[in-house]
Amino acid sequence: MAGMSQANLTHTEAQFRAQALTLSTYYLHLDLSQAADHDQKTYPVTSRIEFTTAEPDLFLDYLGAEVASITVNDSPVEVDFRDGRIYLRNLPTDQPVTVDIASSSNFSRSGQGLHRMLDTADGKTYLYSHLEPSDARRIFPCFEQPDLKARFHVKLSASADWAILSNQPEVSRKTIAAEGGEVATVEFAPSPPLSTYLTSFAAGPYVSTSRMWTAPDQTIGVELRALARASMADYLDDEILEITAQGMDFFHDNFDFPYPWGKYDSIFVPEYNLGAMENPGLVTFTEKYLFRSAPTRAQHAARTNTILHEMSHMWFGDLVTPQWWDDLWLKESFAEYMGADASVHATKYAEAWTNFAGSRKNWAYSQDQLPTTHPIKAEIPDVDAARQNFDGITYAKGAAVLKQLVHYVGREEFYAGARDYFKAHAFAAATFDDLLDALGNHTDRDLDTWSDAWLKTSGPDTLTPKITVHNDTIESLEVIASAEGETRPHRVSISLFDASLTRTTIFDVDIPAGSSTTTISEAHGKPAPSLVLVNDGDHTYAKVRFDDNSLETVRARLSELHGGAEEELSRAVIWTALWNMTRDGQWAANEFIDTVLQHAPHEDNTNLMATNFANARYAVAHFLSDDRREAKRAEVADKFWALLQAAEPGSDAQLTIARSTIAALASTPDASGTSRLNDMLQEGIRGLLLSPDLRWSIIQALAARDALPQEVLEQQREDDNTLTGAAEYLGAKYAYPDPKLKRYLFDEVRIPQAHSNAEVLQLLAAFNAPRAADLTEEFAPEFFEVLESIWSEHPIEIANHIVRGLYPHQEMAVAATNKFLNSNKVPGALHRVLLECQDTVRRNLRVQQAQ
How far does CA 287 lie from the centroid of its chain? Predict the structure, then answer.
């Protein structure tokens, strides 16, 4: 079938079209009037595209079901639709061209294109779109590349009692009587020039809250709305629009470019593949940001960061768009940076940079040490490669490097350059060189050299202090920089802490590119410190090590390092450094686990607490040898249980500890794991509110321990008759340690289009449930036999989940992966996924052997 092809646009093809085309306007009409009938698998789409071309032969991108007709300048032409493309030939050149297309597109269950779901809570249907990087072609025929911007005139037809939404405000509505109820056709205001992947559509009985935002200088007003499906509307808390308004204030003042998209809707949607998407005027967010369960401050802070991240895209990414996906990092890194910076300066969540340093950067360091690591500015030959680069380097490393750039040139200078960039390239496409040109007007720093060193290389540098002490004073202090290639330039803060762990001295140090040793002459003669902390303040991107004395201080006394926001950020840098050392086999996993259990419970910042609890559990499961793992699991479970008993009732710390306790109890070999989980389920922990999410976690843990009565499971399903609850139910129903269930899951999860993305994730979690590794080992050889079909039969996002979820984390997988890659012609994206899975197994084995 032509419409099922996953045609992969290359950069070469995109450059050809960009040179040939001058794009003007899309006129779209999506007829969703039958969307509530789930027997209807497609919906009609009519498209008109206006452009001029210097080339007579072009192709449109389209992953639809059928193309019924095409006219060019009102004259019918033969339909040539195959392999995900509509071919247009003998077009008039250098004069206006109008192409009209009547087609049918597929409703989606994968989260790509126009996703449709049925809410089990009330039987209502909801639709929303997700199109980045190249899934607008799943909805309408288009020239699907970021630099071909056009104005969009959109009409949507749907049930008249539904919310009907697109990027721009509604300007007209016509309602007609139809079988099954009235149908409204809504016309939206024309958009400013927009890339196809940023178009957005939603329809369904969404419920909304709203408020008006007026700029601080009174120059512009915008309606802000937050929307959710009816069964989740109670969780649309007031803070969502409060943070949205604070962000609008911040970016209006700092970007000096009035918000250009007419309205600002934030829609929270189920079964979403990612956290959020910056569609201008209609931003989509995962429903996980609607808190059905009592949230911690860390969860509020994470949601705030995401709201502000997406809002910054309204300018950086939407107003000015990357020419091609090799600058994907730029818009995402910029937004990642802005999410944190705006949180700190515009909201009460001033700990954003601590959360970034202590949690988000772990993603970057991990990704950057895989064999698939790549420069921040990566070579992106095609759109499938772009899909794979929505990773820790593009987001977290890029943001860390931008943070270093801001520290390198100055914050005010950086914002001044951004303002010039927006004015120069508004509603157009641009490159990183354009941003450097704008920034260069506000600094004397050598930005070209900086750019080459940071953006065109891969892997992290390592910064290690070397201190010599004589008669309780510093004889010398040096920083040793190392890397696989040439080291980068760093501007870092290096702090000394005395015996009371009070910061006594901060050195502002420039470490030149290519330098292996940097001497800090100002340290000579100062009192010998208890702790030397390189990269205090987290201004650069590098793995940090400790001298022996500092490491012992941290191991024994980390929780004594307190005071205020600066000390909290220092602890985040230390925690991340300790985790990197553990992952690299430079510090014993037992030492890390014990340090976490000793000091993380005293963290004021529950993000740091939760991150390090999770890292400790990972270290137990993957970094300890088989003969030591079970005893440590039991010890960790006992300690978490004791921590839970001692936690302040109703506190953020109690909830954070409870979540880790459930995970630890699920894995412990001791029978007490079951009895303690039952105690939690019977609300035996004073002050701990058993929200639906927490209750499901306990139930899934009990199922994994073969200790969950069926009537308890069915009662929970009845009590939480929501779409989220239905997916959680799958995760519990199939988590039992039964060989027949593992066989069922291995087969079931591979059936194309049988499950939504959310259901696939729950089925995979059940397959990999705690204490069932011996039951899944037998599927390892079969995995490599069915691997090719998994990749070819599923959309790339779901295929990615299935491959990673079924990949055998066994020593045999190392050789089996090599054999598969050497014996098959493997798509680049799959090749990357397999190398990453293989490297995880290799690292785990290497760290185990280093203990």
Answer: 14
